[in-house]
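To close the chapter, one final illustration. This time we ask the reader to focus less on the individual chains and more on the assembly as a whole: which components sit near each other, and how the overall shape emerges from the parts.
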Amino acid sequence: NAGVMQNPRHLVRRRGQEARLRCSPVKGHSHVYWYRQLPEEGLKFMVYLQKENIIDESGMPKERFSAEFPKEGPSILRIQQVVRGDSAAYFCASSPGTETALHFGNGTRLTVT
Amino acid sequence: QKEVEQNSGPLSVPEGAIASLNCTYSDRVSQSFFWYRQYSGKSPELIMSIYSNGDKEDGRFTAQLNKASQYVSLLIRDSQPSDSATYLCAVLRPGANSKLTFGKGITLSVRP
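The assembled structure is written out below.
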């Protein structure tokens, strides 16, 4: 059974470009979470999605960031007009339901030059 | 006050010793508690979960939970150099839309 799959593993973007990060949850998991991790810091919650619905986006910056989890296909975290401060590791996690442990993907390391 | 605090660290212990990692949380209604291990440059990996007061043992790992004092700890017995990693404490409130909140992590180094 494949775990959470994230791609790309590494992504380099110039300031002002768009970054698209993809996440395929564990088969059968309908809950997807995105976290951001800066160097030497813990994981900061960004957004929680279920199929076709955003449940909680309280950790997401109000501008430039968006997320979706369509009925078919992977979850997408989109960052428009990237800035240097967006450079971080972005982890996706999934779970089969609420109040259960999360399974993490390998992350996408975004570097903005 | 941060929701989940892991203040001590970095921690260095000799091989074979017991490593003790502590975590406190602020929300009394929290019900589920997890310890994740993260090697440098890698993703977090779940190593322990605990839901009720007391101790829970799994191999060399023991998780301890005290809801009255709002702390959860992780003991690693017979520490090995391969245990050298960052350990993240995570707390989950009850509720349909709850999300896992992480502490900053404690970096453990086991000296051969």
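The interface with chain B takes residues 33, 35, 41-45, 48, 55-56, 91, 93, 98-99, 101-107 of chain A (CB under 8 Å). The two ends of chain A are 36 Å apart (CA to CA). With these observations in hand, you are ready for the problems at the end of the chapter.
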